[in-house]
Amino acid sequence: SLTSVACWQENHCVAVGDAPHGALTETWDGHNWTRVPNPLSDLHQRDRTEDYLLQQGGDALGSVVCPTATFCLAVGSMGAVRSPSQLQELVTAGDFGNALRHSVVAFGHNTPAEVWNGTSWRALLIPTSRRALEQLACTSPRECLATEIGGSGPDFVRLELWNGGTWKQVWKTSSCAQGPGYMVDECGNAPAVACTANAACMAVFSASNPSRQATTAVFTAGRFDGHRLSASGSFRISEPFPIRSAAVTALSCSSATFCVAEGAVSYGYCAHQAFWSSWNGTSWATETGPRFDC
C-alpha cells in the first residue's frame, strides 16, 4: 500500500509505502504509475531467489517530500534484522555489494532513509543511535526536519535536522510521556511537522492521556528556528467519554502565520471524531467533524 505522495509538477510525482517483500516506491508521469526499484525492495527481491537475507517483510517508507525535481527524501522503519555478520556477508557478496555499502547502516539499525535524484533511489547512512523517522518536511535538499520515534525510555521522540549530508538531533523529549513543555501521545505518535522556509518550521504534538480517563485532549505546538523549539500555542478537543487516543496526522503551513493541522480522536468503546485546527500567527482555532461509531 502507498502511504505518502509528493509532487513537484502535476505530471511528476513519487509515492512510497510498503509491500510484502520490502518498501514500495512508484512514480507518476501524468498518465500512469510505475513501480521503481529501491534498496529495500531490491534486498527482498534477492531474498526470494537466494535464502540469503536477513528479514522477511516489515519494511516501510512512511513519508516522502520533494522540494525539487531532482531531490526527494523518504523515511520510514524496518523489520527486525538477524545479525550484523549477515549484513557484512551481504556487503561483500559481489554484484550486490555496491547497493549494500550505502545502506548497511540503515539496515543494521532499523531506520531506512532514501533519496530520489529524479531517476533512481539510493539509501542514506543513518547513525547507529537513530531509530524510525516518521513525519518529514523539507524546504530544500539541504534543509529537512524529521520526527524520530523509537523504543521506550529517554529520548523517545526527537527532532532530526538533515543538512544535505548528515542528520543532527535538534530536540528530544526527556521521556516517552512528556518533554519540556510538550506532551507526546502515550509513547505512540510522532509530532507532525511543516516548514515554510529555511529555519522556519512548526511542530504539533499529539495529546497525552496515559491514564485514559481524561475527556479533553490538549495538543501543543512549537516553532523551530533552526536551533531550538519554542512554544507556539495549544488547542483542545473535548469528548463525552474518556479519550483512548488523540493524534495529529497531518500539518501544512503556507507561511509563518498560517498553518492547518488535522487529526482524529478515539473515545469510549469505539467512537472517532476528526478535527482540524488553524494557526493565524497568534493562536489556534479548532473545529470538529461528525462523530462516528465502529
Describe what you observe in this structure:
The structure is a single chain. By secondary structure, the protein is mainly beta. Helix content is 10%, strand content 51%. It is built from 4 helices and 20 strands. It has helices at 39-49, 84-91, 97-101, 104-108; strands spanning 2-9, 12-19, 22-28, 33-35, 60-68, 71-77, 113-116, 121-123, 132-140, 143-149, 157-162, 167-172, 192-197, 200-205, 216-224, 229-238, 243-255, 258-267, 271-279, 284-293. The strands form 5 sheets. It has a 4-stranded antiparallel sheet with strand order 1-2-3-4, covered by helices on one side. A 4-stranded antiparallel sheet has the order 5-6-7-8, with no helix packed on it. It is globular and about 50 Å long. Residues 43-57, 80-84, 94-110 and 176-186 have low confidence and may be disordered.
Write a brief caption for the model.
The chain has helices spanning 39-49, 84-91, 97-101, 104-108; strands at 2-9, 12-19, 22-28, 33-35, 60-68, 71-77, 113-116, 121-123, 132-140, 143-149, 157-162, 167-172, 192-197, 200-205, 216-224, 229-238, 243-255, 258-267, 271-279, 284-293.
